[in-house]
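To illustrate the input format used throughout this study, we show a single complete record. The first block contains the structure-token representation of the backbone; no residue identities are included at this stage. The design step must infer an amino acid for every position from geometry alone.
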């Protein structure tokens, strides 16, 4: 349990939030949402004791242990992977160290024997004899193979370090668990493992994440940080989003009677509850459904970007044909002899254990890279808009945003360009910002504005949710669902794939899996899983 009393923090004259009074209780998972800069990570640092609030207090239940996902990827470079995970339970680690030091003494005294006996008792109480096997199980679940469990952290890759630090945070069944963006750099299979783990976790969990499917799968409550206020709602992200949108529409319907609005909200809760109860992610955590209350449903003051793609012409019957395409990086084959035809109305997601495979394919079909072998051919009616994984080359300039966007437009009038920037939430003096100083999220919104101006009928999107906040992701997702052209994309956002794509193509070094089905079915289909295992296992 974590209790927060009269909490407030400000930096200079800027108040992030104030007068926050909350209690986070065991058995619940709290998904923390808010626009970029609203104070999500700041709140987590205050709760963990890494940052002192301007006023107010944070307290835990008596004798409770808190665990926090470390953001310092170099802190444990001189430790082995196993040692790093064990250090996650500080008390247990200290007992282990003291016990080992005593037994290593050459002049072991009676007093040492008494102390060793006390330590052994503590060790047993904390289930120390199972510590290494428990740590190994967490590491394996997170994709760290057994042969690497005693490797030094400095010899692990950046993505592997993220997984080890996550195992460290989870180790020892902490009473209070704080996770800031735990799905970053995890593949979709590992995210699913983490969803299942946290859904069955019986203590208190607080999570900051931009992954809507992840939040929906684990959260019993949503903590919304918005305009200096911190508000707690029962229900997951989807419930918060859909209910707040409904409340906003009702607010705009001045003529509607209060009783009619109440009935509409009650019907929404009934339908939402029924859908969740039938979902594949149903867990014991869905007790949240019993607590949904129409009194909590409030309109959100969030601003969503106006992402709209309008194809200038309808695509013809021929979209894209790939003939014998092969690509490799540093001697690693990403895909070999790829033969594929993209059909009209296909919204295809490309998947792979190696994300370099999708980037290589997209760079080839957009003409930015040559394949090792093979050819591709677009249909004559096809116009494309490309969102690359790495957009840094576009922003190595001191041009302001209006002039930057002007480079990609046939219409160079300021009013026209400012209209697109306004849709992407750049207003007033912000449009005169230099392109070189933009944040990752701002760059992505500029790239989306650039794409919107092309009126393309085929969109190529390499990990489109990178750097975007939840509002932008939601708006992007909604418009792609309604898009009347073709989509070719990669993503690590489960919800994005599930709601947008109708065709799954898995790229492996030894062939492809190509299925017309939705993502939930693809990842649970036994024949697909067996084929994946076979193709990835081949050397």
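Output of the design step:
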């Amino acid at each position: 349990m974590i209790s927060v009393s009269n909490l407030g923090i400000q930096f200079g004259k800027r108040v992030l939030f104030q007068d926050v009074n909350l209690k986070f209780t065991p058995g619940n998972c709290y998904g923390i949402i808010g626009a970029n800069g609203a104070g999500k990570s700041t709140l987590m640092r205050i709760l963990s004791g890494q940052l002192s609030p301007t006023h107010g207090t944070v307290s835990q239940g008596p004798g409770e242990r808190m665990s926090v996902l470390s953001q310092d990827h170099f802190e444990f470079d001189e430790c082995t992977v196993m040692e790093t995970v064990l250090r996650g339970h500080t008390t247990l680690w200290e007992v282990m160290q003291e016990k080992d030091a005593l037994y290593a003494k050459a002049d072991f005294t009676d007093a040492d024997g008494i102390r060793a006996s006390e330590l052994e008792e503590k060790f047993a109480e904390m289930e120390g004899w199972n510590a290494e096997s428990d740590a190994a199980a967490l590491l394996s679940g997170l994709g760290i193979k057994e042969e690497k469990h005693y490797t030094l952290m400095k010899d692990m890759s950046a993505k592997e370090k993220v997984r080890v630090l996550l195992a460290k945070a989870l180790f020892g069944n902490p009473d209070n668990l704080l996770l800031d963006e735990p799905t970053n750099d995890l593949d979709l299979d590992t995210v699913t493992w983490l969803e299942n783990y946290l859904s069955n976790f019986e203590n208190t969990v607080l999570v900051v994440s931009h992954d809507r499917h992840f939040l929906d799968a684990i959260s019993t409550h949503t903590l919304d940080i918005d305009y200096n206020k911190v508000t707690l709602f029962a229900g997951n992200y989807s419930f918060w989003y859909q209910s707040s949108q409904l409340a906003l529409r009702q607010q705009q319907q001045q003529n509607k009677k209060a009783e009619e609005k109440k009935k509409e909200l009650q019907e929404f809760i009934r339908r939402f509850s029924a859908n969740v109860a039938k979902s594949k992610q149903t867990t014991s955590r869905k007790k949240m459904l019993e607590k949904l209350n129409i009194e909590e449903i409030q309109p959100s003051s969030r601003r969503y970007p106006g992402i709209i793609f309008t194809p200038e012409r309808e695509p013809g019957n021929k979209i894209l044909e790939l003939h014998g395409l092969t690509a490799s990086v540093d001697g690693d084959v990403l895909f070999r002899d790829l033969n594929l035809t993209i059909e009209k109305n296909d919204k295809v997601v490309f998947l792979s254990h190696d994300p370099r495979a999708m980037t290589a394919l997209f760079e080839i079909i957009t003409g930015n890279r040559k394949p090792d072998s093979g050819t591709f051919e677009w249909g004559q009616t096809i116009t494309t808009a490309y969102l690359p994984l790495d957009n840094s080359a576009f922003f190595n300039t001191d041009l302001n945003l209006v002039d930057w966007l002007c480079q990609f437009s046939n219409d160079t009038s300021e009013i026209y360009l400012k209209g697109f920037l306004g849709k992407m939430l750049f207003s007033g003096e912000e449009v005169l910002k230099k392109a070189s100083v933009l944040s990752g999220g701002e760059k992505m919104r500029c790239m989306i504005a650039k794409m919107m101006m092309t009126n393309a009928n085929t969109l190529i999107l390499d990990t489109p949710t990178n750097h975007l906040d939840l509002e932008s992701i939601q708006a992007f997702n909604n418009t792609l669902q309604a898009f009347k052209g073709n989509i070719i994309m990669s993503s690590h956002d489960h919800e994005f794939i599930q709601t947008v794509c109708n065709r799954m193509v898995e790229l492996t070094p030894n062939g492809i899996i190509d299925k017309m089905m939705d993502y939930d079915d693809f990842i649970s289909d036994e024949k697909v899983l067996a084929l994946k295992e076979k193709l990835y296992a081949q050397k």
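Structural context for interpreting the output: Residues 280-286 have pLDDT under 50 and may be disordered. The first helix runs from residue 40 to 47.
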